[in-house]
């Protein structure tokens, strides 16, 4: 048997392939660990770069009037901050009212589940066991109360405030000094052709990402307003809240619309008396979102090239796993940036044509 193994020879290409796979696995594991452990710092930093690429051309237009980059960067950050604060203010009051109606929603869901006797029996059995367990352990009740949502918010508030501060400061410095950053990176290349290639790629990526994100933003605003009026027409309370939420969720491709459908179904259950009527807002949202995704967005952005749906879903899943909801919002822009850089590099080296990716259809 040993002689057979002695005669066995592995092709050099197979050894190289195994080495490449091993190195890739180590790099992926190391990067994943770094992203998770460095979430508090890396998440706002990366987000500031994505948003900075979006608002960079706006800063350029301000600077054309003779405004120095230090002031134009501050103006852009102030505009972005005011937009976010306006949205939060519009969210807080109506959302707090709906949170108080969660017990009513749970009561409606219990009524629906009552139609399935087997499922209801299992829930009742689990509840009886839970009641028995909690009645025998008063200490456990105290521990659960200590882990209340209010305490969770209070504990996580300093971290959230630190991330917001890191994001705003890094966004300001990226916008105000991005030309210096570009010049520094260009200086690292040895040849003039490499420097020229990088400068062109940087400008093309910034212009494309800015146009893409701004276009998607205006599309989502239109989507939110349309859904708001449609929900108002059928008697849904706080229609502007759900329309604005629909616009925000539309940034998270695939997953966002599913979350929105589930949310609107819950809103329908609280608003209407029957399950069929509760499906009305879901149907309205599905129709409007389908028109936006299949007709409006492709007509605005073009159908020249779409991102692979698997890559989009993988990117969203990975970034949500690494950075939570924030990762879901920046997943597609990050994938677009990487795809655009790779395609422009290939185009400038003569490997492929210069095509730019669009929103996944």
TrEMBL record:
Membrane topology: Multi-pass membrane protein
One protein family per Pfam: AI-2E_transport
Keyword Lyase: no
Secretion signal, residue range per the UniProt entry: none
InterPro entries in the record: AI-2E-like
Gene Ontology biological process terms from the UniProt entry: transmembrane transport
Subcellular location: Membrane
GO CC field: membrane
UniProt key word Transit peptide: no
Keywords noted in UniProt: Membrane, Transmembrane, Transmembrane helix
TM ranges: 12-30, 36-58, 70-93, 153-175, 212-235, 255-288, 300-322
Record family assignment: Belongs to the autoinducer-2 exporter (AI-2E) (TC 2.A.86) family.
Record-given protein name: Putative permease PerM like protein
Organism: Maritalea myrionectae
């Amino acid at each position: 048997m040993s002689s057979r193994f002695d005669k066995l020879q592995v092709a050099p290409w197979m050894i190289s392939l195994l080495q490449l796979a091993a190195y890739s696995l180590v790099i992926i594991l190391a990067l994943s660990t770094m992203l998770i452990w460095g979430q508090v710092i890396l998440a706002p930093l990366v987000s500031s770069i994505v948003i900075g690429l979006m608002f960079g051309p706006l800063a350029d237009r301000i600077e054309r009037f003779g405004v120095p980059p230090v002031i134009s960067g501050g103006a852009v950050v102030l505009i972005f901050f005011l937009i976010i604060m306006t949205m939060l203010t519009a969210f807080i009051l109506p959302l707090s009212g709906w949170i108080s109606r969660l017990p009513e929603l749970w009561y409606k869901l219990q009524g629906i589940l009552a139609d399935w006797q087997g499922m209801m029996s299992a829930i009742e059995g689990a509840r009886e066991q839970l009641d028995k367990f909690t009645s025998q352990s008063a200490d456990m009740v105290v521990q659960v109360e200590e882990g209340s949502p209010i305490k969770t918010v209070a504990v996580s508030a300093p971290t959230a405030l630190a991330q917001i501060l890191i994001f705003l400061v890094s966004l300001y410095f990226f916008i105000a000094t991005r030309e210096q950053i570009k010049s520094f990176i260009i200086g690292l290349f040895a040849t003039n052709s490499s420097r020229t290639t990088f400068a062109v790629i940087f400008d093309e990526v910034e212009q494309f990402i800015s146009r893409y994100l701004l276009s998607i933003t205006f599309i989502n605003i239109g989507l939110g307003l349309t859904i708001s009026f449609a929900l108002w027409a059928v008697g849904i309370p706080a229609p502007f809240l759900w329309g604005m939420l629909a616009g925000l969720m539309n940034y998270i491709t695939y997953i966002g619309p599913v979350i929105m459908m589930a949310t609107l179904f819950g809103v329908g259950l609280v608003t209407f008396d029957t399950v069929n009527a509760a499906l009305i807002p879901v149907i309205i949202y599905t129709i409007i979102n389908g028109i936006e995704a299949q007709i409006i967005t492709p007509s605005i952005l073009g159908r020249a090239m779409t991102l692979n749906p698997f890559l989009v879903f993988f990117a969203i899943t990975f970034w949500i796993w690494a950075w939570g909801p924030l990762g879901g919002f920046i997943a597609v822009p990050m994938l677009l940036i990487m795809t655009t850089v790779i395609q422009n590099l290939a185009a400038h080296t003569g490997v492929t044509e210069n095509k730019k990716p669009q929103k996944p259809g």
